[in-house]
Design a protein that fits this description.
By secondary structure, the protein is mostly helical. It has helices spanning 3-13, 17-26, 45-52, 60-67, 72-88, 91-103, 111-125, 132-138, 143-152, 154-157, 163-171, 178-194, 196-206, 212-218, 224-231. The protein contains 15 helices and no strands.
Length: 233
């Protein structure tokens, strides 16, 4: 049996139907919802990560097959394996993984998938490179590409590089989707943990026009009096 087939069999054996039903609702998989048609096996993320460690040899062709399914757990383990690979390979292979990820961006169709992979792959790769691709993604009509663009900047934030976080946040200020509001607010908050002055410069410029959810996420760690100030708009 191939490694890929063995992996699928192992995950299906670990399936938890009760947990799967809960996740189907939580991740909005119904008709017309943002993860319409996604199937869950109901495996806990720590267990998926442990399983991923046993399949480091999966190649991009096999990872592609996992990403091309509708099963969240298959996609999740594919991205965990890909992230683990990225940390260990040379620059040439990092470039290949980066290109592979961008090519498959629309298949990374859940905030749970974007958030575990965008910054350790896309953000990390772009730390010392031009970042035009993030602006292309941010201007996309695709929800997941936009979230990838925003979350990828977390790698920059962790390296005390803030410009792209604020520039992409500005692009996404008027986005209609709640998942983008949360992503932008989260990254603004993370930037503020390292440079509060820059976060507040951004907020003072935009807080009156920001979506409420975005603002609440951005100011979550502020003292109560300061939160009240920003929420009065």
């Amino acid at each position: 049996m191939s490694g890929l087939n063995q992996l699928k069999k192992e995950l299906q054996k670990e399936a938890n139907p009760v947990q799967a039903k809960i996740l189907q609702r939580f991740f909005k998989t119904g008709k017309g919802e943002y993860s319409e048609g996604t199937i869950f096996l109901g495996i806990k993320t720590p267990d998926v990560r442990e399983t991923a460690k046993r399949y480091p040899e999966l190649d991009l062709r096999e990872i592609q097959k996992l990403l091309s399914t509708k099963i969240f757990d298959f996609k999740q383990i594919a991205l965990i394996i890909l992230t683990n690979k990225f940390k260990k390979v040379d620059e040439k292979e990092k470039t290949e993984i980066f290109g592979f990820y961008i090519k498959n961006a629309e298949k990374i169709n859940s905030w749970g998938l974007v958030d575990i992979s965008a910054y350790p792959i896309i953000g990390s790769y772009l730390l010392d490179k031009p970042r035009d691709i993030l602006y292309q993604l941010a201007h996309s009509d695709n929800l997941w590409k936009k979230r990838i663009a925003m979350i990828a900047t977390y790698a920059f934030i962790r390296n005390n590089q803030f410009d792209d976080t604020f520039k992409i946040a500005e692009i996404l200020l008027k986005d209609k989707h709640n998942l983008i509001h949360k992503a932008v607010g989260w990254m603004l908050r993370e930037a503020g943990k390292r440079n509060l002055e820059l976060e507040e410069q951004f907020l003072k410029r935009y807080y009156k026009s920001m979506p409420r959810t975005m603002l609440r996420y951005a100011i979550e760690r502020f003292p109560e009096t300061k939160r009240k100030f920003y929420l009065k708009k």
